[in-house]
C-alpha cells in the first residue's frame, strides 16, 4: 500500500496502490493530505464523519477527495488520517481524523483547488493490487 507524488504538466498528481478498494481510497486521501500540509505535525483531536457519492467507483473517489478539500477549506481543519467504513461503486463512508488548523503549528505546503477526473481509472493488476493515478488542479 502507498502513494507517491507524480509530475504532471500544470497540475500535481499522485499514484496510489493498495490491496483493497478501501485502502486505495484511504491512501488517496493520505496522498492528498501530504500535498496540503505536513501531516506529522497534525494531532488527532477531532473526528469528522462524512460520506461521498458518485456515478461509479472513480467518480466516488474523486468526489471524496473534493469533499476533503472542501472540509479542509471551510471547516479550517487539517487531517492526519482517514478511516474508510465502507466503499461501494456509488458511495463511500469515512471518518477524518485531525484537528483545527493552527497557523503557529501547521505549515500549508500548497493549495489544491480540486481533484479531477482527468484520465482516472482504477485497475487491479496481476499482483492483486488496486492502482490509480489522480490529478489535482492547483
Characterise the protein shown here:
The model has no long low-confidence stretch (mean pLDDT 95). The chain has a single domain, classed as 3-Layer(bab) Sandwich (Archease, Possible Chaperone, Chain: A, domain 1), CATH 3.55.10. The protein has two helices and eight strands, in the order ββαβαβββββ. Strands 1, 2, 6, 7 and 8 form a five-stranded antiparallel β-sheet that branches. The relative contact order is 0.26. It is an alpha+beta fold and 138 residues long. The protein is globular.
List keywords for this structure.
alpha+beta; Archease, Possible Chaperone, Chain: A, domain 1; five-stranded antiparallel sheet; 25% helix
Short description:
The protein is α+β, with helices and mostly antiparallel strands and 138 residues long. The chain has two helices and eight strands.
